[in-house]
Amino acid sequence: SLSQKKYRQKHQLFIAEGVKVVQEFLKSSYELEILFSTDTDFSFLDCFVEVSNQELKKISSLKTPNKVLAIFKIPLQKKINSSGLTVVLDTINDPGNLGTIIRLCDWFGVDQLLCSKETVDCYNIKVVQASMGSLTRVPISYLNLTEYLKTVSVPVFIADMDGDNIYKTTLPPSAVLVMGNEANGASDAIKQLVNTKISIPRFVTSNQVESLNVATATAILLSEFRR
User: Fold this and answer.
1) What is the pLDDT of residue 14?
2) How many CA atoms lie within 13 A of 46 on its CB side?
3) Were 127 and a residue from 21, 99, 108, 113 both cysteine, which residue would form a disulfide, CB within 3.0 to 4.6 Å?
4) What confidence tier does 51 reach under pLDDT thresholds 50, 70, 90?
């Protein structure tokens, strides 16, 4: 049932799979509920349950289960910071994109990641896998973005195809970067609240390449903010 968002919210639990990912969560402040493994290396844990390869395959969402599946408690959302570098995601639908963006935020030392309530759940199993443990280090909150942006005191930038060239824009160390939906970009309500649009210029004359993947664009923009 924890593969579905409504049951994750009901039980306040989520699944992590694979040795590396589970070890990252075990080293973090996340609280373990129960751990199933074919490997006795985890037998030191009080809530360890040894299972066969066949049993692990039955409860795993992976095509090729990787020794261990653990269930952790979903922590309370942390208090939102008013300074530093913040990434805001408006209706990101693809779990792989969100997982990659979480890893990017971890790599570039982003202070917090804020998501619209329509953005895919960060405890979706595909997001957890794609984030490769970075979920343990990046504070993530889900909230009403329009209400949040009305209260922001630092400069706010929004990624937009018609925005100013990122390579010619002066970027402050404390700022908010808004990334929009994969297909439609940021919503009109968000665009009305953000004055500064930035874009990644295209270095070809052909218009056949319509846009960059949102995670790729986030990587380029965060690199420029840190540079």
Assistant:
1) 98
2) 3
3) 99
4) very high
Identity of the residue numbered 198? I
Which residue has tokens 């209260």?
Answer: 151
Q: What pLDDT shows up at residue 98?
A: 98
Average pLDDT value for residue range 199-221 = 88
Distance CA 197, CA 206 (A): 23
Please give the torsion angle defined by the CA atoms of residues 12, 16, 22 and 24, in that order, rounded to the nearest 10 degrees. Answer: -70
* Angle at CA of residue 151, ends 149 and 157, nearest 5°: 40
pTM value > 0.85: yes
For residue 117, pLDDT over 90 is answered with yes
**Residue in the block written with tokens 């960059």:** 212
8 Å CB contact between 6 and 67: no
Q: Are 18 and 66 in contact (CB under 8 A)?
A: yes
Nearest Cα neighbor of 30 from 99, 78, 64 is: 78
Which residue carries 């693809």 as its tokens?
94
